[in-house]
Amino acid sequence: KFQKFDEEVKKLPGEYGPPTGSLFLAVDDKEVAYGCVCLRKVDDKTGEMKRLFVRPEARKQGVGRQLAQAILESARGRGYQRVVLDTTPHMKEAIDLYESLGFQKIAAYRKNPIKGALFFELWLK
């Protein structure tokens, strides 16, 4: 199980709900989800991007970028000044996306059970 994901899904929207969080789904014309991303509160000035995922058949089409941009806009709208995230080193395409959006590597802001996890932040304008 990936970081208690099954438990988290059962409690949706949970900490990703308003007024401090967001959850976006990318769906096709049959309303089948092929991507998602979430935002949760870290503190009054910081939101955390979580669970950015795009199904393999929908990758390389800009879906991940659109989801990430939507969550960043939501973070701005919720008054956050900074967005943080963590990922693993093998998620090279995701890391490239984050860096292209302006995220920069930082020291760990929380404990992550995955060895070698990378941490990023973006200061919102």
Q: What is this structure, in a nutshell?
A:
By secondary structure, the chain is of the alpha+beta class. The chain is 24% helix and 33% strand. The longest helix is centred in the middle third of the chain and has 15 residues, at 63-77.
Question: Can you describe this structure?
Answer:
With 125 residues, this protein is α+β, with helices and mostly antiparallel strands. The protein has a single domain (5-123), classed as 3-Layer(aba) Sandwich (Aminopeptidase). It is 24% helix and 33% strand. A 6-stranded mixed sheet has the order 1-2-3-4-6-5, covered by helices on one side. It is globular.
Which terms would index this structure?
Aminopeptidase, 125 residues, alpha+beta, 33% strand
Assign a percent range to the helix content: 10-25%
- Taking pLDDT < 50 over at least 5 consecutive residues as the criterion, the unreliable ranges are none
The strand line-up of the biggest sheet is 1-2-3-4-6-5
The H-and-E topology, N to C, reads as: HEEEHEHEE
Strand tally: 6
Contiguous helical run count: 3
CATH fold call: Aminopeptidase
User: Could you tell me the radius of gyration in angstroms?
Assistant: 14 Å
Largest sheet: 6 strands, mixed
Outline the secondary-structure elements:
Blueprint (H helix, E strand, L loop, with lengths): L4 H6 L11 E6 L5 E11 L2 E9 L8 H15 L4 E6 L4 H9 L3 E3 L11 E6 L2
Parallel strand pairs: 3-4
Antiparallel strand pairs: 1-2, 2-3, 4-6, 5-6
